[in-house]
Amino acid sequence: MPGSDSTAHKSKSRRPKYSQFSQQELPAFKLILTPGYVISTFIVVGLIFVPIGLISLFASETVVEIVDRYDNECIPKDFRDNRVEFIKNKQTNKSCTRTFTVPKQMKSPIFIYYQLENFYQNHRRYVKSRSDKQLQSKKNAAHIRECKPMGETDNKDPIIPCGLIAWSLFNDTYGFSVKGKDLKVNKRDIAWGSDKNYKFGADVFPKNFQVGDVGGKSLNSSMPLSEQEDLIVWMRTAALSTFRKLYGKIEDDLQANDVITVVIENNYNTYDFKGTKSLVLSTTSWIGGKNDFLGVTFITIGGICLFLAITFILLYVIKPRPLGDPSYLSWNRNSTPTPGR
Prior knowledge:
By secondary structure, the chain is α+β, with helices and mostly antiparallel strands.
């Protein structure tokens, strides 16, 4: 029967039941970018960004920072033409004395950083040359598969900690004095707490480290890795080829025009790859260390927004452009959808 055929056809249909939701016809807000909206947005962004930039820039200017590059000055004149030979020769005197004047009062804590340039800690092979399992627990001492070529000694004994990152640990040292008085350098709490507590085990001790081919600083074999904060700081690899790492803290105030004497042991070999080394002393503010970029960026963006707002206002006043009637827009038309369409 014809009626039964049409009923069967309807029951087999996969067409969903009509609704505004299924047909994406629910009411929606669709912004029309009129001159008022655009100009108001630029003004608001400018009025917010410029003050934030000025505050950030002012905070950065309150930070006192001293940067002293010493890799060239700490090479004796006789070795200026062959720096690699000097740094690799164990018989040469690596001690070097530098002096600089404090430009403004530096309130404690004063953070000490070493800065390296042209050192690619982000190189894939270098980053992978470590064993996180070995660093966490002594039961994983033999887990050295990822550490090549610094995974084991010539006698096939595992190196702890293994890998290129640990092997290349920074080993320059600094001693500070002002007016003949030594300044104590606090090297506690310079590493991230999460690294000390979770990434470096309290039961893991250095073993067979820097045996044979020495790459950097040696470690105290009687101290667990979780307490060797120089290593923990170094093992957090940098993303860029120029980076700073925290060496320690001076917890005494330094006055303006104080002359700081620094005795440097220039041990670390950056001359093979034409890298540079610098010593950095810096205070901090509520926004962190010295960083003019953030403030300049906010001021620049806010200034551009205010400039565009003024430009659009002038254009709108001098040469106004009539707006179209928004009632002709498709979503403003009074049309009643039908279920059968």
